[in-house]
Design goal:
Strand content: 15-25%
Number of strands: 5
Radius of gyration: 22 Å
Largest sheet: 5 strands, antiparallel
CATH topology of the largest domain: SH3 type barrels
CATH architecture of the largest domain: Roll
Structural class: alpha+beta
Number of domains: 2
Strand order of the largest sheet: 3-2-1-4-5
Helix content: 40-55%
Shape: elongated
Length: 157
């Protein structure tokens, strides 16, 4: 499970609006300026993402929580967001090139079919994301300052 800290912005109708600060994938290794991921992190900054999650643990505004994303949800999301548009792009390009009347028109048909296939894949993803409000995130626990003190005292022993 991929875990991340978040802050609750508001709670209403059984749902919590969470603010999650995006972090770079490499939390600061020795590569420094030679790392491409660190370069993108410095360029785009650490922006916050706002997500809506079902409140199953009784949250209040400004609570800190730990949220988790199962690996299977991450894999399914990656396949849907990347592989599906790529597949529809390739299939659209191949099918459209077969419809060309002569060899000179194949490139134009292939390009148009690829664009149409890619558009269909992206449109499908957009409709699915609006239809399915569950993003796979699960609230793990509320973080209290006393819990943080207990963890620090256990680690120092």
């Amino acid at each position: 499970m991929i875990e991340q800290h978040a802050r609750v912005q508001q709670v209403e109708n059984g749902y919590a609006l969470l603010e999650i600060t995006r972090q770079s994938t490499c939390g600061g290794c020795e590569q420094g300026s030679n790392c491409g991921t660190a370069l993108f992190g410095r360029y785009f900054g650490q922006r916050a993402a706002t997500l809506r999650v079902q409140d199953s643990i009784g949250l209040q505004a400004n609570d800190e929580v730990l949220v988790g994303l199962p690996e299977q949800a991450m894999l399914n999301g990656s396949l849907r967001l990347y592989a599906l548009p790529l597949f529809t792009f390739l299939m659209g390009s191949i099918l459209a090139s077969q419809w060309a009347a002569n060899a000179a028109d194949r490139d134009i048909y292939s390009i148009a079919g690829g664009v149409m296939g890619l558009s269909c894949g992206l449109l499908f993803n957009l409709i699915q994301s609006q239809r399915n409000s569950s993003n796979g995130l699960k609230l793990i626990r509320k973080i209290t300052h006393s819990t943080a003190v207990e963890i620090l005292s256990i680690k120092s022993v």
